[in-house]
Write a structure and sequence with these properties.
Length: about 375
């Protein structure tokens, strides 16, 4: 098939998932066209059947503000028409599904079908916002298929937008790459001693990631002298710097910019700690599980679907319990390793490309066979 994928290009779960999906689809013989304002970080442009269409953000002097949605729609329409794409698979309803809807309107003859994958914030952050709510509902109603990355997000989406339309749940997947350096080399570079326990946290540090709780847990651990926290940060850590002094954590915390290849750090870590208050899936948690590291996270959103009973799921915000669990990991490395091994088994048995990609292909084939939802609505 010929598939257009529209995603955000930055280090962030949705873009990473969309990129991995596109690469897998191309490896399976599909022609894949990416649309974004920059090359997605993990996209390999040298791979066969991969195409990238960069969209310049509209900054025309007649407009008071820059605009992305219309230039994106125009580019998707141009390529969709010229390449006779079968499907636009857009990651995020706004602005991507809205752009796909406009592009479809611009293509008179057999326009591509629209598959919209929701990753979370359309529903959890923007859905309740009256400035976006109607646009998201419109995009979802006019998609030929909608998928969510967890059952929890599916239910929340149906409730938030009061939808009755079907939504497919296709959980995320991850394919671990080979680390480029040894565990010892990475730990040496980070300044982590042999007897120290390295806890990893990877996120964009947005307020919902609750970095305050992350730091308080480390501060509350009895074993804190032996614990180092590595934060792979997708944005500036500066707002949290004062907390390091307040909590006496300067020596414990190491901050590095989020890498597009996380394998080196995952291999070097001893556990993962995730403190989000909202999380539709938690791709970083899955990445940590693939490297056989025990994960401690709060029981919110789709996290229980990812972690199951292969990690420590705690009531949201329970700092004392989380610190005690971490202490337990440090004091009983064999127990921690067992939990990590269990997490890896779960990741490998439920969240691989071989499981997820055929589910997306089934959705593409299903929508390609049907009349577009707009045509159906017109006929009724
Ligand atoms: O806030 C983030 O974590 C980034 C965001 C994104 O759009 O990249 O992540 C969302 O999509 C990921 C991939 O499906 C999920 O693993 C994350 O749970 C989800 N974030 C939230 O729901 C807050």
């Amino acid at each position: 098939m010929k598939i257009g994928i529209t995603c955000f290009p930055l280090v962030g779960g949705s873009g990473i998932l969309a990129t991995a999906l596109g690469m897998e689809l191309a490896a399976r013989g599909h022609d894949v066209h990416f649309f974004s304002y920059a090359k997605p970080v993990r996209l390999d442009l040298s791979a066969p059947r991969i195409h990238f269409h960069e969209v310049a953000i509209g900054e025309h002097s007649v407009f008071p503000c820059p605009d992305y949605t219309l230039p994106l729609a125009v580019k998707m329409a141009e390529v969709g028409r010229a390449e006779r794409l079968d499907v636009f698979h857009v990651h995020y309803a706004v602005p991507h599904a809205t752009a796909a809807f406009l592009a479809r309107e611009m293509i008179e003859d057999s326009p591509p079908k629209i598959v919209t994958t929701l990753h979370g914030t359309d529903t959890t952050l923007l859905g309740p916002n009256p400035q976006y709510r109607a646009a998201i509902a419109h995009a979802l109603t006019h998609s030929d298929a909608v998928t969510t990355v967890s059952e929890s997000l599916r239910q929340q989406t149906l409730a938030t937008f009061q939808l009755t339309r079907p939504i497919d749940v296709i959980p995320n997947f991850f394919t671990p790459g080979k680390p480029t350096r040894s565990r010892e080399e990475v730990r040496r570079e980070l300044g982590v001693g042999d007897g120290e326990f390295l806890v990893l946290h990877m996120s964009n540090l947005r307020p919902t990631k609750r970095i305050d709780l992350l730091l308080r847990i480390i501060a509350a651990a009895k074993e804190r002298e032996r614990i180092r926290l590595l934060v792979l940060a997708g944005s500036s850590f500066t707002p949290y710097e004062p907390m390091l002094d307040q909590l006496g954590l300067r020596r414990n915390v190491i901050v590095r910019a989020a890498a597009d290849r996380v394998e080196d750090y995952l291999q070097a870590a001893d556990a993962g700690l995730y403190t989000s208050e909202v999380e539709s899936f938690g791709l970083s948690i899955l990445e940590t599980m693939f490297f056989a590291k025990p994960v401690l996270a709060f029981r919110v959103g789709g996290i229980p679907e990812v972690l199951g009973d292969a990690g420590s799921l705690l009531p949201f915000g329970d700092i004392a319990w989380a610190a005690a669990t971490l202490d337990d990991f440090v004091a009983s490395p064999a127990k921690a390793r067992d939990m990590g091994a269990k997490a890896q088994i779960r990741a490998r048995s439920s969240f691989t490309a071989d499981i997820a990609v055929p589910q997306y292909e089934t959705v593409y084939r299903r929508v390609a066979r049907t009349q577009s939802c707009v045509a159906l609505a017109g006929a009724s």
